[in-house]
Amino acid sequence: MDGEPDVQAVETVRQLRALATPAGAAALSRAAALLAARTDAVTALTRLRAEVGTDLAGPAWGIARQRDRARASFGADADRLLFTGDTLEQAGRPVLADRRATRLLAAGAEAVADLGCAAGTDTMALARAGARVVAVDRDPVARELTRLNTAALGLTGVEVVDADVVDLVAAATAGTVAGCEAAVLDPARRAGGRRQMDPDRWSPPWSTVTALLDRVPTSAVKVAPGLDHDRVPEGVEAEWVSVGGSIVEALLWGRGISTAWRRATLVRDGAVSEVSADDDPGPAAVGPVRGWLHEPDPALIRSGLMSLVADGATLVDPTIAYLTSDGPAASPWLSSYRVTDVLPFNLKKLKAHLRSRGIGRVVVKKRGSPIEPETLARQLRGPGSDAAVVVVTRVAGAPTVLVCEPLTPG
Ligand SMILES: C[S@@+](CC[C@H](N)C(=O)[O-])C[C@H]1O[C@@H](n2cnc3c(N)ncnc32)[C@H](O)[C@@H]1O
């Protein structure tokens, strides 16, 4: 698509094909065994060269290392899939790709275009869910990975296409793109190893994102979690997804599939909680600090839906996402801490106070304060045997410290 593929890409494709042969599979399993035995790279490569040949040794070792990294999110599939460092870095979580596929297919889509497939995470999820998939990427390595990965999983109905997504979306008509009535678009949001904050510099850029949402109503676009709410087009649902207390994905759902204004989704231990609203519910009320402090999940904060789970709890400050109430919260969205002391922020007085209470170990949390939590935690370390959570924040505009006990798990 971009003229002659570069020499490095041609060589990587050749190596990937070699690894997909029976000899390549044997080299990969030997490399995996050496890695599992914690063999250092120099020794492992020397042995691999002697045992499987110089051609397969390096690529097999490289893939074995990527599989090791991929196992945390791809599980057992990781041992059948191929990734380069770059495509693994860009890969989403399969469990979330499965959710996305289920929602697109539930909207009636049969054929889905995966626009920018990389190693094929979304393509695999869509094909597994029963869709016919047109997987598009302008990178020949990505296309080869998607071909080999879908074949390794025995998935059928996948066509891998060399095209520029900008052109495909510009040519989209009658609600379809690349011959499909639904699409997933996951723009590359990194350049030169660094996160690209400006959506106009994503690849494909923001103009292609909005064009897809306008032209193909059954579409899902992965965007940066920090995306400005003002960018979300009218009628498009924005969803923030958190796993393990961090936002891992943000999605825009096209008008043909959107069922809310904003949605927050929390995935924990396989269970999924969702909060959504058809319109901006506005902020939670503000009030004085009470006996309990609640830290909302970041997806709830980003989605602007905090007031929906507040349940009588109030914000400690109009600009700070901490809630407070008279008891612990019974919500998966809120982590609750019992507040034992409320002090104006003063390092010397805080140290003296913690010592007087026998507190020698602290976890520092902060919001709306320039302090560096690890540094402050070190400064507050003392001889006392008790522990506390020290929250540095603003309360009604004033720099304040809330000394808290963590909520016992469960
Ligand atoms: C973030 S990655 C996709 C990751 C994938 N969804 C996954 O979870 O594994 C973006 C992909 O889009 C491709 N890409 C970027 N701009 C493109 C364009 N204009 N046309 C075609 N492919 C493009 C890149 O080569 C890259 O493989």
Residue share in β-strands = 25-35%
Please bin the fraction of helical residues: 25-40%
Low-confidence stretches: none
Bound molecules: S-adenosylmethionine
Q: CATH superfamily membership of the largest domain, which one?
A: Vaccinia Virus protein VP39
Q: Quick check: average pLDDT?
A: 95
Name the structural class: alpha/beta
Please tell me how large the radius of gyration is: 25 Å
- The total count of helices amounts to 14
| Spatial gap, N to C terminus | 54 Å
- For the record, the CATH architecture of the largest domain stands as 3-Layer(aba) Sandwich
CATH topology group of the largest domain? Rossmann fold
Count every beta strand, where a strand is a DSSP E run of 2 or more residues. Answer: 18
For the record, the count of structural domains works out to 3
Largest sheet: 9 strands, mixed
Top-tier CATH class of the largest domain: Alpha Beta
Quick one: overall form?
globular
